[in-house]
Amino acid sequence: MNLRWLNLSLAALAVGFCCGGCHDAPGRPGAAVTRPDKVTDFHVLYHQSCAACHGADGNYGDAISLNNPVYLAIAGAANIQRITANGVPGTLMPAFAKSQGGMLTDQQVATLAQGVESNWGRSNALGGQTAPPYASSAAGDPAAGQKAYVTFCASCHGADGKGVVNAKLHTGSIVDPSYLALISDQGLRSLILSGQPQEGMPDWRSDLQGAGPRSMTDQEVTDTVAWLASHRVATPGQFYSHP
């Protein structure tokens, strides 16, 4: 073969390879790539921003279960959206709204809040009962809270809040300062109000042994939170003090 034609053929093959293969080159974005601020699918947004803490399906995560219709009914869509946007200072819940230093647009925050409600909410979650309000409007009394705790919580969490370990029950300490440093008073209140059904923890509508069903009142919930919060320390996890 003529050397000139050989060179031309090789050059044509090289050009064809570059043009035909560049679309599949490693690291090259495809034509369907969506800008992060344009993602509008709830499941994609939830997986990217929420699943690591709240669980892949809204539960069994380290943070409060969002796949809990009672919690959603008590908190309400407005609070879910506000918390998603602004985060919870002093806890591991970050702010997601761009206006608060996060990475999501207002529309994406709204999509998350609406998606949580539409996927996991239930219109009859409270069974016709009126729950105590999501947030307390009164101060709590730790002494009264200890009494309420013994009445409603001690059978599962121990008389002193340090947990129960036996053949049928295994609960950890809920007065551990390290735990209390990671959860806000509102977080404690939300857990008491909505329970953790996936863990067998009832909501505020407790069923007392031998006394029949009796729901916790708003003040009893508030006082119990105050008693739990009284176990916080300035330097959780440290076994020494500075001189």
Offer a quick outline of the entry.
The chain has helices at 3-21, 42-49, 51-54, 69-86, 106-120, 142-152, 154-157, 177-180, 185-194, 218-229; strands at residues 164-165, 170-171, 207-208, 212-213. The chain is mostly helical.
CATH class of the largest domain: Mainly Alpha
Large-scale geometry: globular
Q: Low-confidence parts, pLDDT < 50 over ≥5 residues?
A: 15-22
Could you tell me the number of beta strands? Answer: 4
Q: What pattern of helices and strands is seen along the backbone?
A: HHHHHHHEEHHEEH
Rg calculated over all Cα atoms:
26 Å
Please work out how many helical segments DSSP would assign.
10
CATH A-level architecture of the largest domain:
Orthogonal Bundle
Strand order of the largest sheet: 1-2
Structural class, by secondary structure, is mainly alpha
Strand content: under 5%
Proportion in helices:
40-55%
